[in-house]
Specification:
Elements lengths: L1 H8 L1 H27 L2 E10 L4 E10 L2 E6 L10 E3 L4 E4 L1 E6 L3 E4 L21 E7 L7 H7 L7 E7 L23 H10 L4 E6 L8 H13 L3 E3 L8 H7 L5 E2 L6 H4 L19 H9 L2 E2 L10 H9 L23 H10 L4 H8 L1 H6 L16 E14 L5 E15 L2 E5 L13
Parallel strand pairs: 1-4, 1-5, 6-8, 8-9, 9-10, 10-11, 11-12, 12-13
Antiparallel strand pairs: 1-2, 2-3, 5-14, 14-15, 15-16
Helix pairs in contact: 4-5
Bound molecules: zinc ion.
Amino acid sequence: MNDVRKIVKEPSAILRPFAVSLAAFLFLVPMLVHAQEFDLLIKNGQVIDTKNGIDSKMDIAIRGGKIAKISKDISAGQSAKVIDAKGYLVTPGLINIHTHVFVGSKPNTFADGVLSVSPDDFSFRSGITTVVDAGTSGWRNFPQFKKQVIDQSKTRILSFLNIFGAGLTGEWPALTGFPGIDDIDAASMSDMIREYPGLIVGIVIGHYHGKEWIPFDKGIQVANDRKVPILVECLLPELPYEKILERLRPGDIVTHAYQDVAARKPVPNDKRKTLVDEKGSVQPFILEARNKGVLFDVGHGGAGFWFSQAIPAVKQGFLPDSFGMDLHRFSMNSGMKDMLDIMSKFLAMGMSVNDIIARATWLPAKSIQQFGLGHLSEGAVADIAILNIEKGNFGFIDSAGFKLGGDQKFQAVLTIRDGKVVWDLNGIAAREYGKAR
Ligand SMILES: [Zn+2]
């Protein structure tokens, strides 16, 4: 009885241990939750996200490979890892829509050949998270390309399908063994695009020396059926450029926009015309095509970018829609160093940082109908580039070998693909040696 009375008299005595445990629990739970709330937090960077109209200092939190939160101030205590991006630009992972990455062992050719390059060797170190192969494979060998390169790479690889079944094959530069119009099969092309939705993003027409319009007729037919854009590559010497542009639909893309074909003369009787005329004015038929909605990609490559075209065009406000590299073994050590080099050239020509980032992220994503890429919306895939604009004395070289000086240059400091750090130039995401965690 005494014991019972004692307990009744002092009820808190029996509850005290529970109360202490509950308090500890309530105190610890938020800490545990907070510690695990985000995997990665990028703080203090100047965020440029064209799609969402952001150009301001923001913090970005990542969880499970996705953008979890973007806000003016996210507490460092909420994330397992924090990266200080003060002084840097933070942008969506860069997208390059003109590369040749169907690398293999065949000599002197692109499809499954040594003239293509391995995408991971060139992507993340330039802030690129997505590359698009510009028709190195066709419907005959796309599955091989997928198995051999796409599935083996960390870079996100999408692809245009070549109009020719065998892709960009044949000996270079003579094109010995290059497929002819007999190798164009609209039904097979259409089936292949249907089989890989979101992976094959369009059709490439190029490297055709005939006078027939069959590549365009069949290419546009399939592109209409499958609702994908066409990318027109170079070397269509017998087809008048104005007529090509007339045939293209809104959203179709012309690459090598600033090529001076007159100076280059890649083949006799090349009917392709330059973007600006002899007096430096953008040609009316080019403006007409742009007004219709045709897109113009840089496609720098080894011979596709000339200051004689680009400088007057940029002055007149004719900016590119994307910074395609035309990356391959011949171009990677030429005037074109990488995508950042192309972006830096346009910076040196007076284009604004905002205009440049738009054309390296959201605009190319839209052009290949990849609306989930190229922006930093909450819930989007966490593909991010942290860029520095380096100051100094720099020189930029075009396809004619001319140099343009500049005092600014883009540099990729950190690249994140699917929420994981895949490039870290100066160890800003790494643990300091000799320091406790
Ligand atoms: Zn190309």
